């Protein structure tokens, strides 16, 4: 086949940009419709926070706190977004975070210091992801069931390791990461990790073969298989990726809490799924964005913060979250049907 | 039937979707007891029109009158209450329910309002199936276990389980064998004799000649001809109304066969079989050659292609490309060796419907544009654009979503995928299914051109003229066995149908 790309009409001097730019703009514009509405919601929330508790909400420390809290669940959500885009689901993320956080904070692990804790958290996450992935991709198990089983057993194992006790972190280099002295230009290191994971996630999803294959598998697994994609291996990688994100999140949680607990990451799976869904990821797979998911996380965390500042109880928070999920999906359905 | 008002009269129906005016003032009159055929290319508005008629779409403007009274078809239930039933091309049956449960879905016979009377449902279903000439279908069986043809019968039984006065059939013969089509026509005859009107959609003109009374031709959302006599209007006139052209099937000329015969075969299939699907098969395809497999639905054609492609694992035999055997049951091995498949169910098996043309085209050769997994999107777009232009896919902007393309252009997107991959053996399974008449000739020309450029093509089609017109060499299949092999020019449709149906392997 000839690689005759010379466009007859496009008279732009640079050949690659002649094809590239309109596509890029179109993508940006398309993203805008969804993303802008999420940004709008976030702006309204910030406005509400600023109006109800002007001194406390807009305080730098509070904003740092909000972003730090968003970081742990945010990293989990990036992994979850990939899994959902590929047509799967990972119900075990919260349990994996718990298991990784306690395994990485046992007395034995802490002897190896910073590296030992980080390494163990990541390795436990990857290990759980591997089990999920093998069961789903090669064992033919439905993702819902396989990760539900992982949820139960990882939580159980976490309880067994800790015996229900909180494992205090004594490694100073780890604890220091959460201190104000470690902030870079006023930004907590945990938030920087979250930002880095977001950027890498976006690049992987949008610019790599891995991302394309994930979307293809979620959009039409049979077509992907017949197009020559190794669907099973891709699925395995996706659950590994989710496990990796859980491991990183577990480390962030250890820094944040200064301890490891078997109750960590409670209901993270639901928060992560909810954030991805309101961010525009299709639960049936084939479509989704990292930016949307991250905005979803920020929206939820901001709500929690505003409610806490206004002394509203968690029950009200939960009701508000539910309402937001419903509203976001309804709005998306409407915009999807008109575009 | 002149004095009575028509059973159904639609006038000035318009319906727009974002960016598309699907219906632009369509009129349609249907009399009780007639078979009214709806003709038009894909995208002409047939599907939208019948969805309006079924209550699934609301028209923007226009009026619908039913037995002389204006009505609004607010929902499918409203249409059904009037006595309008629709049998869609994609059957809308619940696979995990039984035949009887499907037939009575939504109006189960009940006692005291909630106790479902399964036995009554089964009895009335059996009666309907009897009427439809298929008493052998067990009302208690799961629909998912039935053949496509039988599922269609169930769909029809469901339509008849209501008190129908008008049945819309959207390409009902597409999945049927000739004898099944005869049965379908008998049913249509019975229905019309009982005063039921049938709106019949088909791409096959010869069917319309056989059973149609009047024809309405749609083009670009308008009715360009209404109430033409189905039996006496010349084919050329109908085709030119649909397309603006006077041709139906145009096949590209064949090159000289001696040149082809000299080449070494690129694809060799030895003793390949799958129990219950097809008997041991041997075949060879040379570069530049188009080999056709002709046979009925259920003769094992698609299964053969999918087994060669590695999507199914063979029980015996092997597949060789350039003399090297492929790992059995591995699609990836086949793709790596240079095989490409354009499957029968394009939307379900080939396309990523949410994605752009570019991404659909590049999906099999992504790594070519990637370094360490990183995609060079400029190169990808350029290559996709070149492939799209080479096949004159329209629109030629590869950024548009693939779902907005017509059937023929979607098929071109699939071909472009393999063209871009640099594939050497193309397996085509029903390449013109759902492709309108005008676009077919273009696809045939594309396939022939690809063959002339050195591709080996293995073609499967249920339309005998297509196999005979396009292929160089034809293998005739009957119930999973090759009963005859001959150059296409030595065969005609009659002979092939004889072989397929009578099966005289001795000849």
Automatic annotation (TrEMBL), chain A:
Transmembrane segments annotated in the record for this chain: 33-51, 72-100, 112-135, 142-162, 182-205, 236-258, 290-309
Superkingdom of the source species: Bacteria
Main location: membrane
Alphabetical UniProt keywords: Cell membrane, Membrane, Transmembrane, Transmembrane helix
Membrane topology qualifier: Multi-pass membrane protein
InterPro entries tied to this protein: ABC_transp_permease (IPR001851)
CDD domains xref list: TM_PBP1_transp_AraH_like
Keyword Kinase assigned: no
This protein's record includes keyword Transmembrane helix: yes
Protein name, per record: ABC transporter permease
Automatic annotation (TrEMBL), chain B:
UniProt keyword annotations, A-Z: ATP-binding, Nucleotide-binding, Repeat, Transport
Residue intervals of the ABC transporter domain: 8-245, 261-504
Domain of life, source organism: Bacteria
InterPro entries to which the protein is assigned, alphabetical: AAA+_ATPase, ABC_carbohydrate_import_ATPase, ABC_transporter-like_ATP-bd, ABC_transporter-like_CS, P-loop_NTPase
Keyword flag Transport: yes
Molecular-function annotations in GO: ATP binding
Pfam families: ABC_tran (PF00005)
PROSITE patterns linked to this entry: ABC_TRANSPORTER_1, ABC_TRANSPORTER_2
Gene3D superfamilies tied to this protein: P-loop containing nucleotide triphosphate hydrolases
SMART domains: AAA (SM00382)
Protein name: Sugar ABC transporter ATP-binding protein
């Amino acid at each position: 086949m000839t690689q005759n790309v010379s466009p007859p009409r496009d008279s732009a001097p640079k050949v690659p940009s002649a094809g590239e730019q309109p596509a890029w703009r179109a993508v940006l514009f398309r993203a805008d419709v969804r993303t802008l509405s999420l940004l709008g919601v976030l702006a309204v929330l910030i406005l509400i926070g600023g109006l109800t508790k002007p001194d406390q909400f807009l305080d730098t420390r509070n904003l740092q706190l909000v972003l730090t809290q968003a970081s742990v669940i945010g990293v989990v959500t990036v992994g979850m977004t990939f899994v959902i885009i590929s047509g799967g689901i990972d119900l075990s993320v919260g349990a994996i975070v718990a298991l990784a956080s306690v395994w990485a904070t046992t007395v034995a692990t802490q002897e190896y210091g910073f590296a030992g804790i980080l390494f163990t958290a990541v390795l436990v996450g990857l290990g759980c992801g591997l089990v999920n992935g093998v069961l789903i991709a090669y064992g033919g198990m439905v993702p819902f069931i396989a990760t539900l089983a992982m949820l139960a057993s990882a939580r159980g194992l976490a309880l067994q390791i800790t015996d229900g006790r909180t494992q205090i972190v004594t490694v100073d280099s780890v604890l220091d990461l959460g201190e104000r002295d470690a902030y870079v230009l006023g930004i907590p290191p945990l938030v920087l990790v979250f930002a880095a994971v977001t950027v890498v996630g976006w690049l992987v999803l949008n610019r790599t073969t891995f991302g394309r294959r994930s979307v293809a598998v979620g959009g039409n697994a049979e077509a992907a298989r017949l197009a020559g994609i190794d669907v099973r291996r891709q699925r395995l990688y996706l659950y590994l990726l989710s496990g990796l994100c859980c491991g990183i999140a577990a480390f962030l949680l250890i820094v944040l809490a200064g301890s490891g607990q078997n109750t960590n990451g409670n209901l993270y799976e639901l928060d992560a799924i909810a954030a991805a869904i309101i961010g525009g990821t299709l639960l049936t797979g084939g479509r989704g964005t990292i930016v949307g998911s991250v905005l979803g996380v920020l929206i939820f965390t901001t709500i929690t913060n505003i409610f806490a500042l206004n002394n509203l109880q968690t029950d009200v928070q939960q009701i508000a979250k539910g309402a937001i999920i419903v509203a976001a999906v309804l709005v998306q359905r409407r915009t999807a049907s008109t575009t | 039937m002149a004095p009575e008002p028509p059973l159904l009269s639609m006038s000035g129906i318009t319906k727009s979707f974002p960016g598309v005016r699907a219906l632009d003032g369509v009129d349609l009159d249907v009399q009780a007891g007639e078979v009214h055929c709806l003709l038009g290319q894909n995208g002409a508005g047939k599907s939208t029109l019948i969805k309006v008629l079924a209550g699934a779409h609301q028209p923007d403007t226009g009026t619908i009158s039913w037995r002389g009274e204006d009505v609004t078809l607010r929902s499918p239930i409203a249409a059904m209450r009037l006595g309008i039933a629709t049998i869609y091309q994609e059957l809308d049956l619940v696979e995990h329910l039984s035949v009887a449960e499907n037939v009575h879905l939504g109006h189960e016979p009940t006692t005291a309002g909630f106790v479902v009377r399964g036995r009554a449902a089964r009895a009335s279903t059996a009666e309907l199936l009897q009427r439809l000439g298929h008493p052998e279908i067990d009302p208690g069986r799961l629909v998912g276990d039935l053949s496509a043809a039988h599922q269609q019968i169930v769909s029809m039984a469901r339509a008849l389980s209501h008190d129908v006065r008008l049945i819309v059939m959207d390409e009902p013969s597409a999945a049927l064998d000739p004898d099944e089509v005869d049965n379908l026509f008998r049913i249509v005859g019975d229905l019309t004799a009982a005063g039921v009107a049938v709106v019949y959609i088909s791409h096959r003109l010869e069917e319309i000649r056989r059973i149609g009374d009047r024809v309405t031709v749609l083009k670009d959302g308008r009715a360009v001809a209404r109430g033409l006599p189905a039996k006496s209007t010349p084919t050329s006139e109908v085709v030119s109304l649909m397309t603006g052209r006077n041709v139906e099937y145009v096949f590209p000329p064949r090159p000289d066969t001696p040149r082809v015969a000299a080449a070494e075969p690129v694809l060799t299939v030895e003793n390949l079989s799958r129990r219950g699907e097809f008997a041991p098969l041997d075949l060879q395809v040379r570069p530049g050659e188009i080999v056709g497999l002709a046979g009925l639905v259920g003769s094992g054609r698609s299964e053969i292609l999918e087994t060669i492609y590695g999507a199914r694992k063979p029980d015996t035999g092997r597949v060789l490309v350039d003399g090297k055997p492929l790992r059995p049951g591995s699609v990836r091995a086949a793709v790596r060796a240079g095989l490409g498949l354009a499957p029968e169910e394009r939307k379900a098996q080939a396309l990523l419907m949410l994605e752009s043309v570019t991404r659909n085209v590049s999906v099999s050769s992504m790594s070519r544009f990637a370094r360490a997994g990183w995609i060079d999107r400029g190169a990808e777009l350029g290559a996709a654009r070149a492939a799209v232009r080479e096949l004159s896919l329209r629109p030629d902007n590869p950024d548009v979503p693939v779902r907005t393309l017509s059937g023929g252009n979607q098929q071109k997107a699939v071909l472009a995928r393999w063209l871009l991959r640099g594939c050497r053996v193309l397996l085509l399974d029903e390449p013109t299914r759902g492709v309108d008449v005008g676009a077919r000739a273009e696809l045939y020309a594309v396939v022939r051109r690809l063959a002339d450029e050195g591709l080996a093509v293995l073609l499967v089609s249920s339309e005998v003229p297509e196999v005979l017109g396009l292929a160089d060499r034809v293998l005739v299949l009957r119930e999973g066995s090759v009963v005859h092999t001959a150059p296409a020019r030595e065969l005609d449709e009659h002979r092939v149908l004889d072989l397929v149906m009578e099966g005289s392997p001795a000849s």
